[in-house]
């Protein structure tokens, strides 16, 4: 019982502080090769050091007799937690550093709040390598034990969405030139969670290199992470950034990637998909609305029964089914809109994000929202003007073919990484804005019977290049 209680307390503490420790292996394999020829040029700092495993392994490359002197002049480690500082100091002793010396350069400090004054007094440039705390603002707001972090998102930090972003902006404001950060990969792929931060931060820093992990790295978190190498620009400028990267996938499969980030697309990876959405938006787009809400049902009560699932009641791997008593107008609206959007990959190939038919998957006519709306639930789509059932099937085929084509070409990087899992591919989230904009490239209102047959044929043949040519006219 005591062991179980300890594990629970450890998990609460880890989530409360956004704490995920980094192994020495990560440093040796991915970071050391990038800095090995620069060791005496910098002061090596970790402001969120934990046990010190991102800095102390540097000492393996310093002769034993020179380690103490090198440590004194080149290494400073900080953490907010006394117990971590104790572990870090003991770790330094294992490298041959006397405890008295370790106490001078390994210090307790709250660096989300302040920048250590001791570093401002040094005459060598600082190189900051860290695995900072990351905790999403949405989580912080919802949990009492983390709400003390809300103060970090005020004033000059208003609009940022994660603790790691606060840490990086602190480095920016204190003029740190070289950074290596282990951070959530949604730094590169996220939309709302990262747009403002990328625009602000990448005005001042260039991405030198990126190593993206699509396999589990840390024992206690399912967050997909990357190692990001940054260098401060000589002067602030919002320009296109190009850099190389590695993507480490399942079973040691490594992809070499070349990235282009554009400020026009908020420096988000996979901008080519957004370019398509802008370029091919039809002159007469469909109007897209989401959700069958409880309020609408209550305002349209009547004698007609319609079978729905309740998106807010999921148990034993299925949604609760119920009958709604509604008027004829709402009944026709529900029955004439047969599509829903699956925003999150399930992990199987037949459960990819995209459009699907409500009746095929749930054997009902509608998807009812009895409580709050959630973007990860199945969401019924309501189109105006009303499309025939046949045209909605055509829209579904067009939408999913287009989405999958871009997912193959861009390795799904225009989508938000959902979370780590044991699936055969990295699960992604398709945003509702992306869904609407992709639907609005479907030119159904401009098609005559002949052109509709032509589009059907191109979709059946999976001829996406032909579809692009078709959309241009």
- How do the strands of the widest beta sheet line up side by side? 3-2-1-4-5-7-6-8-9
Span from first to last CA? 70 Å
Structural class: alpha/beta
What is the strand tally?
19
Q: Give the count of structural domains.
A: 2
Give the helix/strand layout.
Layout: H1 2-17, H2 24-35, E1 43-46, H3 64-74, E2 75-79, H4 82-94, H5 99-105, E3 106-108, H6 117-120, E4 126-130, H7 137-142, H8 163-173, E5 178-184, H9 186-189, H10 195-201, E6 205-213, E7 225-232, E8 241-248, E9 254-261, H11 271-279, E10 287-290, E11 292-293, H12 294-298, E12 301-315, E13 318-326, H13 328-335, E14 339-342, E15 354-357, H14 358-362, E16 366-369, E17 379-384, H15 389-410, E18 416-417, E19 428-429, H16 432-439, H17 449-460, H18 464-472
Parallel strand pairs: 1-2, 1-4, 2-3, 4-5, 6-8, 11-16, 12-16
Antiparallel strand pairs: 5-7, 6-7, 8-9, 10-17, 12-13, 14-15, 14-17, 18-19
Quickly describe the structure.
With 473 residues, the chain is of the alpha/beta class. The chain has 18 helices and 19 strands.
Walk me through what this model shows:
The strands form four sheets. This protein has a nine-stranded mixed sheet, sandwiched between helices. It has a four-stranded antiparallel sheet with strand order 10-17-14-15. Strands 11-16-12-13 form a four-stranded mixed sheet. It is built from 18 helices and 19 strands. It has helices spanning 2-17, 24-35, 64-74, 82-94, 99-105, 117-120, 137-142, 163-173, 186-189, 195-201, 271-279, 294-298, 328-335, 358-362, 389-410, 432-439, 449-460, 464-472, and strands at 43-46, 75-79, 106-108, 126-130, 178-184, 205-213, 225-232, 241-248, 254-261, 287-290, 292-293, 301-315, 318-326, 339-342, 354-357, 366-369, 379-384, 416-417, 428-429. Residues 1-10 and 17-21 have low confidence and may be disordered. It has two domains: 2-267, 3-Layer(aba) Sandwich (Rossmann fold); 287-472, no CATH class. Strand 1 (43-46), helix 3 (64-74) and strand 2 form a beta-alpha-beta unit. The chain has 473 residues and is an alpha/beta fold. The longest helix has 22 residues, at 389-410.
């Amino acid at each position: 019982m005591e062991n179980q209680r300890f594990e629970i307390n450890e998990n609460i503490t880890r989530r409360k502080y956004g704490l995920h420790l980094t192994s020495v292996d990560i440093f040796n394999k991915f970071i050391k090769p990038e800095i090995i020829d620069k060791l005496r040029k910098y002061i090596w700092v970790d402001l969120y050091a934990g046990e010190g495993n991102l800095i102390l392994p540097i000492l393996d490359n310093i002769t034993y007799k020179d380690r103490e002197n090198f440590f004194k002049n080149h290494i400073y480690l900080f953490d907010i937690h006394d117990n971590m500082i104790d572990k870090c100091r003991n770790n330094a002793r294992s490298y041959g550093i006397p405890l008295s010396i370790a106490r001078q350069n390994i210090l307790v400090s709250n660096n989300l709040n302040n920048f250590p004054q001791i570093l401002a007094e040094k005459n060598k440039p600082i190189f900051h390598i860290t695995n900072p705390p990351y905790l999403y603002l949405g989580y912080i707001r919802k949990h009492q034990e983390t709400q003390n972090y809300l103060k970090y998102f005020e004033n000059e930090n208003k609009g940022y969405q994660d603790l790691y972003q606060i840490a990086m902006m602190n480095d920016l404001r204190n003029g740190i030139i070289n950074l290596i950060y282990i951070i959530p990969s949604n730094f590169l792929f996220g939309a709302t969670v990262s747009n403002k931060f990328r625009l602000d931060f990448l005005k001042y820093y260039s991405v030198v290199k990126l190593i993206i992990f699509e396999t589990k790295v840390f024992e206690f978190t399912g967050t997909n992470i990357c190692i990001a190498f940054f260098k401060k620009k000589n002067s602030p400028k919002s320009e296109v950034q190009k850099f190389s990267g590695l993507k480490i996938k399942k079973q040691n499969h490594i992809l070499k990637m070349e990235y282009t980030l554009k400020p026009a697309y908020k420096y988000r990876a996979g901008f080519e998909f957004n370019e398509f959405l802008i370029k091919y938006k039809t002159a007469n787009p469909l109007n897209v609305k989401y959700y069958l809400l409880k309020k609408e049902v209550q305002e349209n009560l009547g004698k007609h029964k319609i079978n729905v699932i309740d998106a807010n009641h999921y148990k034993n791997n299925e949604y609760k089914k119920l009958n709604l008593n509604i008027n004829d107008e709402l009944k026709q609206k529900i029955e004439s809109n047969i599509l829903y959007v699956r925003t999150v990959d399930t992990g199987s190939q037949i459960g990819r994000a995209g459009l699907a038919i409500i009746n095929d998957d749930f054997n009902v006519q509608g998807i009812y929202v009895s409580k709050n709306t959630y973007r990860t639930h199945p969401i019924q789509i309501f189109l105006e003007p009303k499309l025939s059932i046949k045209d909605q099937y055509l829209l579904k085929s067009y939408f999913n073919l287009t989405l999958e084509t871009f997912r193959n070409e861009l390795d799904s990087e225009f989508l938000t990484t959902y979370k780590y899992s044991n699936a055969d591919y990295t699960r992604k989230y398709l945003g509702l804005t992306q869904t609407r904009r992709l639907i609005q490239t479907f030119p159904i209102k401009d098609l005559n019977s002949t052109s509709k047959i032509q589009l059907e044929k191109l979709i059946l043949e999976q001829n996406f290049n032909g579809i692009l040519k078709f959309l241009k006219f």
